[in-house]
Each structure stands twice: as C-alpha cells, then as structure tokens.
Amino acid sequence: MSNHQHVDLARIARETMLKEGFYPDIPADVQQQAQEIDETAIISKSTVRDLRNILWSSIDNATSRDLDQIEFVEKEGEDFRVLIGIADVDAFVAKGSALDDYAAQNTTSVYTGVRTFPMLPLELSTEKSSLVEGDDRLAIVIELKVTPDGSVTTGDVFRALVRNQAKLSYESIGKWFDNDGAVPDEVSRLPNLESQLRLQLDAAQHLGEARKKHGSLQLETNQATPLVDESNRIVDLSLDERNSARDLIENFMVAANGAMAEFLDRLGVASLRRVVKTPENWPRIQEIASELNDKLPSAPDALALSQFLERRRVADPDRFPDLSLAIVKLLGPGDYVVRIPGQESDGHFGLAVHRYTHSTAPNRRYADLIIQRLLKSSNPSPYSVGELAAIANHCNDRESAARKVERKMRKVAAAVFMADRVGDEFKAIVTGVTPKGTFARIIKPPVDGMIVKREHGLKVGQQIRVKLLSTDPERGFIDFAAIQ
C-alpha cells in the first residue's frame, strides 16, 4: 500500500471544485426546499397519460441512483415503436426557485470518483425525481418509430406517469448480451423482461448500424475511475469498457436527443442545441491516418473518419482506445448554442447528425432541464433568445470547468496509485501539446501525466515510451520523461 494513501481525497475534490468556480456545498434553503417537496401530491395533481402498466426498465451504472431514463420497445409489423421516458425534473424545480438558482450556478453534476457533487440535492435527484425501481414517477416520454434500416421518425413527445419495473446495470446486462450466458436474476424474476430486453437490443442495433452508415464516430476513450474502499483508500483504477448494454443506451439516447431537437423545431421555439463543429485540426487527423498507412480526404469528412476508425479497430483493437483519445482531443469538446427557428445552425460532427440537443439527463445537466421547460411552455417561451444564449455560454463554461475537476481528480487518484512505481517504464500515447506543456497517457494502467524531459518534437497521437519520474498526489502531478 502506497504511503501516500493518507491523502484526503474528498478534501482535495472540494477544494478543486471551489478553485474552478463551483459551489460544492448545497445551501440550507436549497436542501430544505428539496426536503419539503411532496412528490406524491405533485404526481396526484398532474393530468398526464398513465403508462405504469408498461414493462419499463432502466440500464445504468450499478451504483447510479440519479436515474434519468427508462425504455420500452414493441414491434409494429417490421418496425419498432421505441418509448424513452425521461425524468420530469421540471415538475419539482420551479423556474426561479432556490433549487433552480443553485442548479443554474453549477449547471452539472460533477463525478470525481471519490465524491459526487450533485447539481440537485440527493433528496430530489436520487429519490423524488429519479426514476427509481418500483415507484410511480412523472416522465416526459419520447416516441420513436425505428425501421429495419435504422431510420427514425419522431412521433409524439408527451408527459406520463410511469413506473420503472427493473433497475439494471451495464455490467450485468452487457455480460449477458455479449457472452450469451445465463439470464441475470434481475431479468428472470420478471415475466417477459428477457424478451423485452432482446427487443430493445434488436432495435438499438438497427439504430447503431444506421449511425455508422451516416458517419457517426465509434470511439473508445477508456477513462480510469478510482475504486475506493470504506476508508477512502484507492484499491484500483477501473475502466468502464464498452459493451452491448452501453451501446444500447447510447443508441437510444442519441435517437431521443435528435428527436427532441426535431420536435422543438416543429413547435417553432428557440432552443438549445448541442454541436460539435467541423474540426479545425483535420490536417493532424490526416497525418495520424498517414502514419498508420491509411488516408483521409483533404476536407473534413465524418463518414471517411468513421470508416478509418473502424478499420483501425479491426486491425489493432488493443491500441484503438489510444487512437480514439487522440481523435477526441483533436475534434474538441461539444458546445451549447441557441437554435433560432428558420436559421441554419451547426450539427454534431462526431455523431453525424444535423439536429441534436441534450434532453435525456435533467437530474444531472441544467441544459436538459431548460429543454423540458421549453417543451412545456413553448407559447410563449419561458426564455428570451438572449436568456438562452447566456444559459448556453454559462453551461459551456461550467462543463469545461467540470472536465478540469474530473481530470484533476483522476490525476490525484492516479498519483496516489502510482506513487510506488517511480522509475518504471511504460508504453504511452501523446494526448496534448500545448503552451502549458506536453501530456501523455500510459496505456496500462491508464494514467495521464506531463512529459517534462525530452518532450520537444512530440505530436498528439504519437506512441512513445515514458519513464515515471515523480508523483505529487496533493496537486495531482505525474511527471514523465520520454524515452528516445
């Protein structure tokens, strides 16, 4: 056990939140407002469709309690009718309330691995507005028709009363789907749930194949999450690896967010869009392809990039996550922008879609809560274009800050975990070349750090060997030397 394990990780997480401009401590009046919410009374007064008899289920991380979505699929001839229920958080968080003001400040839940800083109090986000198993909950339901070729038609979007029949996890469902093993107990205990999940998988695979044909990028960026014991000591760094259960939810959520953007366009209301612009760093992406004896066109082309990535996944699956990381860095992060009806707007390059918003995680993201209000009160809109623009800019700022907090805490955890391996050599990939320094990630274990010796001339995506020079857990510093 490293002698650095005495480091107070929760303290460092909170201090990092403060440094990045977050409000990590939920004020007493906000907590009290969440505690005073009578969800039973609110539900009983709501005039919505009653869909509690449907065999809804959710798939999320095993430890997640802030459940934002549930799913159900049925066949209609050769087509699939897909229903995706999203937690109706707006039903409990009034615009301008203390709860709303606090959520508007942070705009996102921040997950550090050692402590979660929720956007909304846990009494709300993990209980009253969470789509927890076995309880009646309010939801906004997005209806989709999926054809065998994976094309999607947006149906209705409406409020409903729902009941999650089964809280399932990516880990157990993915293992079942991918290894064709025994049906998990949480599935077999409910009549018809096995066939329902297989139907969901079938519909999601059609969506996934269509996304590939349109050029959606299938990336694998393995981020290490610290596993801590009861004493908050790091015992391992865990990777959330892709599996069919994660792919199922991703395909459904991408379809649902595209459908919501289309539905808001139908309403003729200004709204928030999620965009990833055409990459300015395309020449470096071309260069990476050339270094791998492949070729990309001179102009940015999502389909060509998607096909290149698929070739590399097949040719070198072990290194594919590292290639994915380099591409993600070069594409840059997504942004929120205001979509004004009748005006052209950027699409999402990485997903190869023209209409996209964030609407499927309102317990965790403020932009999604705004979308619910726009949906319910489209005429007149509860927000002016100027107000939406200010919200979009603030969400972008806070999302960038959240990435910094999460990245810092991954580094703190990694520095603790790696403290006893100073002097060891590792395979690595260059992940960033900036005025602040040159950065790399070692492959096993997946740990990020700065190259402080022999860093000159290195490029993003380049595969190298590094030597671990030092760690500073308190500051999250890990220093490497490149081995020439």
Poorly predicted residue ranges: none
What's the total number of strands?
Answer: 17
Number of domains: 3
Helix % is 25-40%
> Structural class from helices and strands?
alpha+beta
- Total number of helices: 14
Strand content: 15-25%
Cα distance spanning the termini: 32 Å
Mean pLDDT: 92
Largest sheet: 6 strands, mixed
Radius of gyration: 23 Å
Apparent shape? globular
Looking at this protein, list some descriptive labels:
484 residues; 14 helices; OB fold (Dihydrolipoamide Acetyltransferase, E2P); 6-stranded mixed β-sheet; alpha+beta; globular; 17 strands
Question: Mind explaining what this structure looks like?
Answer:
With 484 residues, the protein is α+β, with helices and mostly antiparallel strands. The protein folds into three domains: 22-266, no CATH class; 282-332, no CATH class; 422-483, Beta Barrel (OB fold (Dihydrolipoamide Acetyltransferase, E2P)), CATH 2.40.50. It is 38% helix and 24% strand. It has helices at 9-19, 28-36, 39-45, 98-106, 122-128, 170-179, 185-188, 193-214, 244-267, 282-291, 302-315, 320-331, 366-376, 385-418, and strands at 49-50, 56-60, 69-76, 79-87, 110-111, 116-117, 136-146, 152-169, 224-228, 234-239, 271-275, 335-339, 425-434, 437-442, 447-453, 463-472, 477-483. Strands 1, 2, 3, 4, 7 and 8 form a six-stranded mixed beta sheet that branches. Strands 13-14-15-17-16 form a five-stranded mixed beta barrel. Strand 3 (69-76) and strand 4 form a beta hairpin. Helix 1 (9-19) runs antiparallel to helix 14. It starts with 8 loop residues before the first helix and ends with a strand.
